Every structure is written in C-alpha cells, then in structure tokens.
Amino acid sequence: MLMESLPALEKYAQTHQSAHMEYSRSPVFNEGNTASGVYYILNNHVRILKDDQQGQPQFLWSAGPGEIIGLTSFFHGKGKYTCSALSGKKPCRIVHIPNEEFTELLKQSPTLKRKLLKLLCQRIHFMEVRTKNMLYLSIDERIVETLLFLAKKDHPNTEPNKKELLINYSITELAEMVGASLEYFRRRIKKLKSQRIIDYGKHGFFINDLHQLQLLNKS
Known about the structure:
The protein starts with 6 loop residues before the first helix and ends with a helix. It has 8 helices and 11 strands. The strands form 3 sheets. It has a 4-stranded antiparallel sheet with strand order 1-8-3-6. It has helices spanning about 5-15, 70-75, 100-110, 110-135, 140-155, 170-180, 180-195, 210-219; strands spanning about 20-25, 25-30, 35-40, 45-50, 55-65, 70, 85, 90-100, 165, 200, 205. By secondary structure, it is α+β, with helices and mostly antiparallel strands. A hairpin with a 5-residue loop joins strand 4 (about 45-50) and strand 5 (about 55-65). The longest helix is centred in the middle third of the chain and has 27 residues, at about 110-135.
C-alpha cells in the first residue's frame, strides 16, 4: 500500500539500529505466532499471506518501503499474528518495534495514529475491491480492473498519458490476486503487451498506456 511519510517511525528506525533485521526469502512472522510487535519496512518488499480453510497460504498484497506490517494483529489484541509475512527475492531490511514501544509511539504522536488508521482503511478498501471483483466480474474484466486499481493506489496523482507506471507485483502474484491460473493470466497479459498497453520483464511489471487500459474497462 502506498504510505505517507511516518516521521515518528523514521526517527525510531534511526535511533534503534539494533532493532534492524534483514530477511531474504524467509518469514518475518507466521500466522498464529505470538504477536510480539509491528515491523517497519526500510527497503524492498514483503508478501502478506493468509491460510485458507485447507491451510494453504493465499497471497493478499505486498508491503513496501515506508509501510508497517503486523498492524491488524496489534489492534486486534488477541496476541497472535492474523496473517503471515514473507520476504521476497531481494533482502529486505526491517525494524521490529515491540508492542510496548509501539503503544508509547502512538501515545506520543497523534499524527502517527491518524495515518495508521488511514492505512488500515486503505487495506480494508483493497480487500473489498478484490472481493467485489471475484464475485461479479469475469477473469478478463478482473485483470483490467485490478491493474487500474493498483495504478491508482500506487500512483494516485498520475496523468493518464504517463508511461511506465511500475506495479510492484510479480506475474504470479497478480494472477493470484485476479483469481486466474498462471497459464491463463500469462496468455491474457501477453495480448495486452502486444498492444503496448503493458510491459513486463526482469525489471518489473509496467503499465505503458493507462488511458487505453481505462478504455478497455469501459468497453
């Protein structure tokens, strides 16, 4: 989720170097673990997952630099993490903030509390959009709707003619978000790539023509 600057957490990260940890292709925390605190991401990305009824992890979203994870578990107050967080291919540097210290930060900074409440609302909206798409749209419609939603979320002030909007999700993660098989998703985005609406490769996933993507959503 796109996050506003959080000076209180930035200051905490600067003054608590010993709390910095690096993760690479490893869990930051697992669903059901004791919730010892929250985590402030300094660089790269972490995948947030939740087990389905069969105990299989389902991808929810990616959290990036400047974001904080473990918030739902902290405010839920049950003492357990409600989701899992897994670091990606690139080493991810994260600051762990114990529950007691995070509670004190919230007391000292009403601005931080307001921004975190806004972040939680954004995440709820994100899941509402995903649920609506799964219930009412075809797979092809979900692909377009999801790409437009992510573009708006991560690049809120972008003009329609802006090129190369980076979407910080892999093709596999996007397929999971859309609810399509990876094979089918690849076929559909290959068509969008041939129309130069999107592009993807080792450097990431990009929307090249936001305006054309919006027109597809209206057709």
